[in-house]
Structure formats: C-alpha cells, structure tokens
TrEMBL record:
One of its GO terms (biological process) is protein secretion. PANTHER family: FLAGELLAR BIOSYNTHETIC PROTEIN FLHB (PTHR30531). This is Type III secretion system protein. Residues 108-127 are annotated as: Disordered.
Amino acid sequence: MNENEYIKRKRAIALRYDRESAPVVKAKGRGYVAHNIIRQAIEADLPVLEDQSLVQLLSKLEINEEVPEDLYHAVAEVFAFVYNLDKEYRKKKQETFSCVDPLKKDMLEKNKCPEGGTHNGKESKFS
C-alpha cells in the first residue's frame, strides 16, 4: 500500500474531556481530513493514540456530541493511558529542566528558544 492509499484509509477522532461532563467529539474525519487532525494534534503537542476499533465506534457520533455511556469504559481507558503518558512526559521534562541553567529554563517554559537549537520541532539554538 502506498502512502496515498494509506492516508485515504486513515480515520481520526479528536475528543475533549473535562471532569464536569462526558467526553465530547471535537473533530472527526477520514483520509486527508484525518491526516490533518493527527498532524495538528502532534504539532500542538497533544497525545495521539491509535485504536481502530474505538475510532470505528466513535466515528458514528457527530461533532460536539457526547460519548454515550456504553463507550465510557473504553474512552476512560484511553484517557487514563494518556494521563499516565502525560504525567511521565511532564516528569521527564522537569528532570530536563533541572539540568538547564535558570535563564534557559525560563526560556523553555515560555516556549521561547534562542535561535538555532530545537524545541517542539522548531529550529532554535542554545549556546
């Protein structure tokens, strides 16, 4: 299967969850739309998890529709997995910061890097 065929078969669902309500479908798509949803999530440093079975079930929902109760358990497992990944990521990020001098740490925290190095895939430079 070439890349074009792969993209055409791709599906993606973006969910939003706050503790006060059920998870909600915020975006969904197939093909190039799915490819763009995934690309934007990666660029925004959001976790991306691949689960074709769950995507197939969630793709039946409309945008801004709440996830039905019968899918809560499956979606909760995804959010728990993502939460644990995020916790580990933040821990490693904090460990990295402890090795950086205070000025550079402040710049990283503000998402501003001096020219030339890399941060979130963008070129910046540290001396």
